[in-house]
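Cross-posting from the modeling subforum.

Setting up a comparison between two proteins and wanted a second pair of eyes on the formatting. Protein 1 (sequence, then structure tokens):
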Amino acid sequence: MSLLVLAPIGAVLALGYVAFTFSKLMKYPEGTPEMVSISAKIRRGANAFLKRQYTIIACVFAVMFVILCVMAAFGFLTWFVPFAFITGGFFSGLAGIIGMKAAVAANSRTANACQDSLNKGLRVSFSAGSIMGFVVVGLGLLDISVWYYLLTYAFKLPVQDVTAAMITFGMGSSCVALFARVGGGIFTKAADVGADLVGKVEAGIPEDDPRNPAVIADNVGDNVGDVAGMGADLFESYVGSIVASCALGVAAASAIGGVDGGSITGDAVVTIPMAMAGIGVIASIIGSFLIRTKEGATQKNLLSALRRGTNFSAVAIAIAAFPLVWFMLGVEHIGVYGAILSGLFAGVGIAFITEYYTSDNYKPTKKLAESTQTGTATLMIGGLSLGMVSTAIPVLIVCASILISFIISGGYAEPTLGLYGIGLSAVGMLSTLGLTLANDAYGPVADNAGGIAEMAKLDPIVRERTDALDSLGNTTAAVGKGFAIGSGVLTALALIASYIDRINLIDPDFVLDLSINSPTVLVGLLIGSMISFFFTAKLMDSVGRAAQKVVEEVRRQFREIKGLITGEPGVEADYETCVDLCTQSSLKEMVFPAILALTAPIGTGILLGPSGVAGYLMGATVCGFMLAIFTANSGGAWDNAKKYIEAGNHGGKGSDNHKAAVVGDTVGDPLKDTCGPSIDILLKLSAMVSIVFAGLVMSFHIF
């Protein structure tokens, strides 16, 4: 139990690091008055969107809180669940808000720092990204620690009941993550597609040109989608993997010889994932200070600088986990350490494969850019093919991690122990999340900095430096999405196992029929598989409808505001209208996909019963995993193929090849920044909802 204190210590250290870094960030100068003015417009737009978005989320949470209280009153849940649901959602939303505040404060400061050097620009933008990363792990560990100590020492619940209650509060963070990802993703891609199609393709003006009415909305979208949305997304993966591992570990301890006896105790299996998370914070903080580069650095140098910190953190976790497992479980269960390593290696492997298929440093994206020489059609065919092919190796990596984790943990002798190993592999993958998320979240800051440099007409060398950071940010963002999807699948698998354990806790005599020839399981499999595609289709429709409105508004302003397109002095675009249009459209469009994700597993359960829900979860996870990788990698490759051409290859900017690449990028934008990340959340939210409503489904179902 003494080692369990590493979790709250890690939370305090992470939040202390956030406060220190935020204070340091705010001391950097913002730049010229024009840079400050542009940054203020982006900040106002982002704040306005989040205020309206979280008002809607608060209304949904109020309804859900009442529903959960009613269920608790009828005995389907404990009274802890409604309140844990609220705290999970609150901390998830707070993490996204703090991260976005740092990002919008850092954009002009990054552009200004790039006037001095590339290294300084990297340090400023990475500081903002690290705030996002460490606030997620800090608040996540704080939430888990408070609930664990409260339930254990204040309410004196046995460890089985503690973990059973803790796993349910992940639904709150999952709900916020879905709304944040879907709403932010629709906003950012509607603005991006509208700005690119009319600005670059039709009007032939550069990206981030101040004449484009959608340019501020585009920069706002980078923050509300890629920062606030990503933060909420990985918050729920992080929390979900830890609490699922704790619950599975207690089930394993009980099966082996009693929770408080036998060769494994309940306290020991709970301590390992929570202590690992605390150690991961310490390792990530140290690793963050290793990230720096020299002036004139290439993309390879910049990527190496980021990898240096991440690799250090991963090695530190690998070393520290061994004595932790040995001390808590003994040498006879040291195989659990291998499960942790498999998760770490799986994370590294998925990150590399994602980078290989999406970075213009490698053959696939270069070949995709080359396909523009024969037109847009061949580019689209190549991008779709690339995305489909890219699913193979990540799937095999996750399969290997699952098998290794299960077998090496002793799953054949005791299946629950093998499932605990799978849960710990997800914890291992996410143990360095503070730094991994920092690598991802700094990208939108660099992107905004480039836009500010363009709009403020800074020296071209500044835009070159911000473009170097932005191009690297595209790669790290793609890697971050691959990492989020891979960790999300492992977390979802651990949650599915926890769902089965939850059914057994509610009624030990109930037998789940999971045989492949069970009609309810088969129907559940098909419905779950279909939901992933239907959900993705609705997101694409939403982005398309919202983007159409932006396109029409940009065209209207170019047509009606005299002197705007020619850049006459004193003539300025109406940025606020585009920001407001994106806000209204995205908030309206996000409701149906979010409600669908919440209600589909409940409806399936009422129709098909607990076994049908298990089939649903398996179908959604299998299809959703591959669909998420496909959409994220196709979109990332199209984006970087465009960047590769803009760097002067295959005709450069303004060429027919470039116009074809812009079209590919606009198609890929909603795939990589709206659909892929949201599918990842769909998988985990479905499992969380199934666990919370398991008691209701067991009491009321048709088949």
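Protein 2 (same layout):
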Amino acid sequence: MKKKRIQFKTLFPIVKRLFCVYKIPCILVILCLILTAIGTISSSIFLQQIVSLIDGALDEHKGLEGAEIFKIIQPNLFKIMGMMGIVYTTGILASILYNQIMAVVGQGFLNKIRLEMFNKMESLPIQYFDRHQHGDIMSHYTNDVDALRQFVCQSLPQCLSTMLSIVFAIGIMLTYSLWLFLVVLLGVCAMLLVTRRIGGNSAKYFMKMQISTGKVEGFIEEMMHGAKVVKVFSHEEKAKQEFDQINEQLFYDTKTANHFSNILMPILGNIGNLQYSLISILGVLFYIFAVPNVSITGIAAMNMSIIVAFLPMSKQFSQSVSNLSQQVSMIAMAMAGTQRILDLLNETEEVDEGTITLVHVLEEDGKLVEVETRSNSWAWKITKGMEDPTYVKLAGDIELKEVDFGYFPEKIVLHKVNVFANPGEKIAFVGATGAGKTTITNLINRFYEIQNGTILYDGINIRDIKKDDLRKSLGIVLQDTNLFTGTVMENIRYGRLDATDEEVFEAAKIANAYDFITRLPDGFQTMLTGDGANLSQGQRQLLSIARAAVADAPVMILDEATSSIDTRTERLVQKGTDQLMEGRTVFVIAHRLSTVQNSDCIMVLDHGNIIERGTHKDLIEQKGTYYQLYTGAFELE
């Protein structure tokens, strides 16, 4: 696989966004930078005017004392000094203004970028999170955004200011002396050559450093999430070795990047000093030997005012080039960070071509009437290609026809799967780990798209249903519980944000979580942090079931819902889930076959194929795979 090369043009989309979002402030910043650059460069012009004024007065009024000459030049000198004060003051005010503007613009822009990244992340399919480490994704919001912050708030204005200073300096130096400017040009060529050789290596390793940082954060996140597993299997030493390896790579990339970066400035500084010395020597020699001075304004004799003004101008010019070269490292980091941010923003979003929505309805005179308030009946609202909407009552009839699916196109994990779930039926999937049980329920949710076949929901192809509405009709309890920072009440209400407190209490009772919640320090207002680390695994699972109960969806999916609950608690939850499942179509995935005996249909999967189906009694009589699983499970018990 060819490695993607990061190029300077990577920054163009970000700069374009910045100017589009903050057009007027950016224009003001550019104007301020121009005024600041003029203020910086003008010192040499004023110095040349003052020297020329004094030199001319001495030549014209030979024999006069210093005090008398000062009286003669005093009016013009004060004019020059007054003009200097105005220009410098304007430059200082412009510098203060652009720094204040950039403080607001920079942080505001990063705020919008983070928001855009998060909104994009929320619209990405599940596959994206399967393919990327969570810590590496987090690195987009920390290291990559910080690299972008340094570019937007520091490097970009610094580069613009420096380039403006360079342009103005070139124009002024050409009006002073072409010969001396050639010396400056020679020094600049040497600086650029060094910057290309050393700065290029620095940029390369700064890019690698940004990627290595993401890997380190990804590994740390994995180790923190799996801390118990690491301890249980005594994997500490192996984890240390693995971390040491990727941390060593980060150290090497950072060390090498800073090595090239740190030797760049001393070399450029010495080239600037050498250039300054050569200009001094050549300027004096041209003056002594009366070498004609050529400039864009014409040919004239070399004088001290030109030499005195040109020296600080050349010093400032070489310093500007050095400053520009110094930004190579920051720009390289910004390029790497920006590329990673753009990769996230350019990811293909979850496709949703559905047009059918889910609405609440009431039956009046045998017809379905849409209502705004919540009711006990749901319907699919079909509007595409129709003048008046058509309503199809949500019954919970789900059918998979000849479905083929693979997480990767070249590796199919489900083969010609056919599932029929009539309204109100309880369908159970059993089989070995990796057989495809959870995959089927993920396809019903459209977390993934099937390669072949059709999935029908009340006779409607689920591709035609808007994903949000499809998922609102499906209550799900996952094997892995996820609790969020907030109160117990807020975590249960996550299933339906408009649920009342009474509905939350009722959902907790259905899941048999009410008793343990009321025994918590603050009851339903107890704060949960760290994915509910202050609760037992069983209690967390009960809250997850209560969350599904408050959603009150017409179809339920229970994916190993009782896998983390002890046998006693399981019996309590089973009573609650039986009440929860009443009148609903339910899909159950369970390793404990005792929990699926009352299912209307049990399907046995093996390597993506449904090899047996029927009721518990039928499958026991067949004495096939299910019989072996069932009797084996009880032998283990």
